[in-house]
Amino acid sequence: GKFAGSSDNDSGAVAPIVKGAAVSAVNKALNTLTIAIRKTIDAGLKEVKKAMNINANDVSVTTESGTATK
Fold first, then answer.
1. Helical H runs in the chain?
2. What is the pTM assigned to this prediction?
3. In a domain, 62, yes or no
4. What distance in Å separates the CA atoms of residue 34 and residue 44, rounded to the nearest whole number?
5. How far apart (Å, rounded) are the C-alpha atoms in residues 26 and 18?
6. Cα–Cα distance measured from residue 68 to residue 61, given in angstroms and rounded to the nearest whole number
7. Pfam families annotated for this entry (predicted)?
8. Is residue 33 in some structural domain?
9. Residue-wise pLDDT tens digits, 9-53
10. What are the backbone angles phi and psi of residue 18, rounded to the nearest 5°?
11. For the chain, how many structural domains are there in total?
12. Among 3, 13, 21, 36, which is most exposed with the fewest C-beta within 10 angstroms?
């Protein structure tokens, strides 16, 4: 079989094609990893929110002089 590489009769046309294909493959892999990371982070943040039991209508608690007030 033939391997991608320059030869006397291709005038260097093969190398840019191979480079473009490699760049495309790397970009697709990175995009897939980015999506997977985002989904994992979103799932983790949902678990943190659930664990904290956040209610948007709750009044925030502040501390003054070492005592908690509401």
1. 14-52
2. 0.53
3. no
4. 15
5. 12
6. 7
7. Lipoprotein_2
8. yes
9. 666 777 888 899 999 999 999 999 999 999 999 999 999 888 888
10. -65, -40
11. 1
12. 3
Which residue carries 């892999």 as its tokens? 29
Q: How far apart are CA 27 and CA 22, in angstroms?
A: 9
Find the domain containing 38 and state its range. 14-55
Residues 6+ apart with CB under 8 A from 17: 4
Q: What is the distance between the alpha carbons of residues 48 and 53, in angstroms, rounded to a whole number?
A: 8
The answer as to whether 28 is a domain residue is yes
In a domain, 45, yes or no: yes
Distance (Å, rounded) from C-alpha 26 to C-alpha 20?
10
| pLDDT for res 63 | 63
| Amino acid letter for position 46 | K
